[in-house]
Each structure stands twice: as C-alpha cells, then as structure tokens.
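Worked Example 4.2. Consider the chain below.
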Amino acid sequence: MMQEYIKELLKTSKADAWEIKNTTTEGWEFYFIRHKLDQNRVKHVEHTMVTVYKKSEDGKIMGGATGEIAPTADRESVEKMIATLLKQAELVKNPVYELNSPSEAKATIKNKGNNVSLICGDFIDAMKHVSETPTEDINSYEIFVNGDTTRYMNSNGIDITTSAPSSFIEVVVNARKDDHEIELYRSYKSGTCDRKYLLSDIEKTLAYGKDRLVAEPTPDLKKAAVLFSTKDAVEIYSFFADQCSAALKYRGISKVEVGKDFIEDVKGDKVSVRTVKELENSSNNADFDREGALVRDVELISGNVVKNILGTRQYSQYLGLENSFIPGNFVAEGGTRTDEELRSGSVLEIVEFSDFQVDPMSGDLAGEIRLGYWHDGNQVKIVSGGSISGNMKELAKDMYLSKNQAQYNNYKIPSLTRIEGVQITGISE
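Applying the procedure from the previous section yields the following structure tokens:
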C-alpha cells in the first residue's frame, strides 16, 4: 500500500515529525436540463498529502511544509519530494508544538447510507416531486455525490480511517410574468439527501422568483429591524463560532475571554452555541478531526458567556489547550420568540441577497438586497434593491431569536433571527 511505503521513507528521513493524509473518493455526477438527463459521469480519485516538520537546533522553532505525492510515484520521486519539503519547512519559523497522539476512544459514528448510487437516487427522486407551475419551474440542476474514505497517520502513532458521504446540488429556477423572466440560483450541501428540506426550500425559491417580478424599490429606511429567515443567517452564527477559534485568539484578533460575556450590555436574546460531533445529515460528522484529535460535544458560548476556545493543534497548544480539536458541526440554541412575534411591527425580512457576509474577524456585516418583505405593521410590501450594513459586535446587543430551529448542513440555528437597528440603504425615488 502506497501509504505504508511513504511512512517507511518518512521514518528514515530527517523529519522531526510528519503526517500522511490519504483520501480516496468515489463520485457520481448528474446534469439535468429541466428534468431531462443531459449527461452523467463517475469518478474514482486518490490524493495523498504529506506534511513534514523540521525543528531548529535548539528545539524552540518548528516549520512545516505540505505536498502531494502521486499514486504512481516511485521511490526516487517520493524521496525527492520529502527532501524538497524538508528544505521548505526549514524556512518556516513557528514556535514549536507537538502533533496529536493516539486516543483510546473508539469510533461511534455510523454513517448511514454511504452508498453513492443510493444517495444520488434519493436526490433525483426528490427533484421529480418539486411542485412547479406554468410560470415558475426548474431550469436545470446538477447533483454531485462523493463517498470519501480518509486515512490519517502521524509520527506520534495515530493511524485512523474514516468514511463518510458528502453531497452538493445546484438548482436554477425560472419565473415568468408577461414578457419578463427571472432566474434564481440555489446550492445545497449535505451528507445524504434531506428530502423534506430540499423540496421545501426549492418551492420557496420558486415563490421568491414570482415575487421578484413584482417587487418595488426598497425604501430608504435608514435604521430598522432586519429579519433573517434563510440560509444566509448561518453567517451570523459563524461569527460567534469563529470568535471562539484558537487561531483568532492567539493572533489577538478575537478578544473573547473564557468565563466572560461575549457581548457586553445585551438587552435582547443571549446567544448559546455549542459544537457537536454529529448532526443528522451533516457532511461534517466525524469521530476525529483532520489532525486526528477526538471530536466531542462542547459548549462554546452559553447564555452569552464564553465557555471554551477550540481549534487546530498548533494554536491550541500555543494557548495551553491540550484537549482541543477542530469543530465540524455547530448548534445555536433557539430563543424566546415565536415566528409571529418576530414578524410583528416594522421589520424588513430579507430572503434573497446578491451576496451576504459577516467578517469572521471584525464582525462587519454587509449584503445587497435582491428580495425582501417590508412589514410595516399593517401590510407587507415586496421590495428589491439597496443594501444593509453594520457590525455584529454592536448589533448582537439587540438581537432576538425564534424558538424554532432550522438546519443548513453542519449548522443548526434559530429559524428566524431578528436584529434591531441595522443600517438600511434603500433606493431613492
């Protein structure tokens, strides 16, 4: 086996530490025009990544370098690659740290349905049941399903193998009114096929396309409440999780402190975020992270109080966190409000952005509005255009969360998130 061959060469090299990550992928792909199959293909690929580490003579500094070794590489090629990586590693100057060591924990996650053909069949069958109309329908869709088997080894004796499916589907829908037509794009990442969510979201998207054709310009509201009810809200909760990262903490970018409030002077709902080893249908379910560390269920933030900092082995060791790991799944707990309460009063519910981002470091929030619903307390107006902006470090002080939750691949979050006082730049008439 290629990995064993590389392992023996690394053992006899001048590397002070090393890692091998071998991934084999069986993938099926389907391309549909409307509901007619245009083409499909099958792939089987293998990638072997090797990382070598070299310490300084005094043992205080360590550098690393990574390269890929082809499955067909001979002994001479592998030795040459390792020598090249060692020279590159010597140029990197990081404080020394130790790689993860083996854990006595046994695998507990049983990936259900790691059958690529079966998962593809589930997606294809689900798409056949989308409720279309004469004016709102499917333009095209593409399905990508992979079955990944990964073996990770390092110089401290870790040797683990994991297997899991990952899926990605892209959907383009059309909506028409008289001589006007609009096209909307959606993408969905998951483990296996979440049929109920997929059908529901595509059908909502068809309705959004219909509304886009009759939308009015977004009024210049200056500052108002904004309601997030789609996958874009994941960006908000990613900011909370990212601020609890060992890398951002070590670099001084994140100022959060364990045992202290994440945000001061909160008058809305207090955010709670935890990382979990397993979420149904997530593509990130795993017993171990990509560095061989044991994954566990851990509180990051509880009622606005920071509980833990997690991250890569390197930055965790710099911070003295010996039991850390790289999280894969996150749960943000529901809040205190019903959906009706969150939609009451004056609030702009935005369901479609051309782009929406929350900077993981600064907390700056920005997005261009493609479709929204302006609830003024008496009626609902369909709007489009303009943008929103603000900073989560301030906006999170006055944020309200629904009791209900929704899942988007590896994030389970409140289904509705209302933030007061967001800057809204509309379109002047």
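The chain has a mean pLDDT of 95. The longest strand covers residues 36-55. Compare this with Example 4.1 before moving on.
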